[in-house]
From TrEMBL:
Organism lineage string: Bacteria, Pseudomonadati, Bacteroidota, Cytophagia, Cytophagales
A biological process from GO: methylation
GO molecular function: methyltransferase activity
Alphabetically ordered keywords of this record: Methyltransferase, Transferase
Annotated InterPro entries: SAM-dependent_MTases_sf
Protein name per UniProt: Class I SAM-dependent methyltransferase
Methyltransferase recorded as keyword: yes
Nuclease in keyword set: no
Organism expressing this protein natively: Hymenobacter perfusus
CDD domains, per the entry: AdoMet_MTases
Origin: domain of life: Bacteria
């Protein structure tokens, strides 16, 4: 789930490998710059179709053609798409996640940063899939802008990006419901995370949660048509971007 190459321990990958090899209670501790420590069971990355949120199931229904699954984790989406007859390339920056996906039977797996020029190896994709708040893989607003340009080199004519994100402005509400931001600081949706598993601490990484209006502005400025396919009551949404 990180977005930059690191020599630090692969905490996410080690937790996924532990679960894959029978340690079903393997759990990550997740620290962020905006919230208290959260506990993330490795099992979450292994969920079946019917354990997935409705928004993810919708995204899978909307896939077409050759699929590039970015930030693929333990491969739950790639495996489901394979079962439906899709050809999927599943990519994650975590070496452990890649190993898990290979063990689980994902046919085509690669370890890449999402900005890696070798990501596509000259291939074009009909669908780029970015689930589990997958817009966050771009890291920052500057990273989002950069990725939207980079994606043009990955998409086939008529190709689409299917991505989820959420608006976390609710974290900045005061008691009266008014939003309190540092207007001179970075965008409120830019968050820094660190993951811990066992005695290993992964490298800190940036993750971005984009409010829908801002994402639309950036995507349209980059030449994409924007279609919001689904929203939920937790301010999460699924968006389709196509080159217009």
């Amino acid at each position: 789930m990180s977005n930059t190459v690191s020599t630090a321990p692969d905490a996410l990958g080690q937790a996924l490998l532990a679960y894959q090899h029978g340690h079903l209670s393997a759990t990550l501790a997740v620290h962020s710059s905006v919230a208290d420590e959260e506990v993330l069971p490795a099992a979450y990355f292994f969920r079946s179709l019917w354990e997935m949120p409705e928004m993810e199931r919708t995204a899978l229904e909307e896939c077409r053609g050759r699929v590039l699954d970015l930030g693929a984790g333990a491969g739950c989406h790639a495996l489901e798409l394979q079962q439906r007859g899709f050809t999927v390339k599943a990519v994650d920056i975590s070496v452990g996640a890649v190993e898990v996906m290979q063990e689980r039977g994902v046919h085509e797996v690669a370890c890449h940063d999402i900005f890696d020029p070798a990501l596509a190896a000259g291939e074009k994709f009909d669908t780029i899939l970015m689930l589990m708040n997958g817009v966050g893989l771009t890291g920052t607003l500057a990273g989002l802008e950069r990725f939207l340009e980079h994606a043009k080199t990955l998409l086939a004519p008529g190709g689409q990006i299917l991505a989820t994100s959420s608006d976390i402005s609710y974290l900045y509400e005061d008691e009266d419901g008014a939003l309190v931001f540092d207007l001179n600081g970075p965008y409120y949706g830019e968050v820094e995370y660190t993951m811990h598993y066992a005695h290993q601490t992964g490298a800190a990484f940036h993750w971005i949660f984009t409010d829908p209006a801002l994402l639309q502005d950036y995507a349209e400025a980059a030449g994409y048509a924007v279609e919001f396919l689904e929203e939920d009551d937790q301010q999460q949404y699924l968006v389709r971007l196509t080159l217009s």
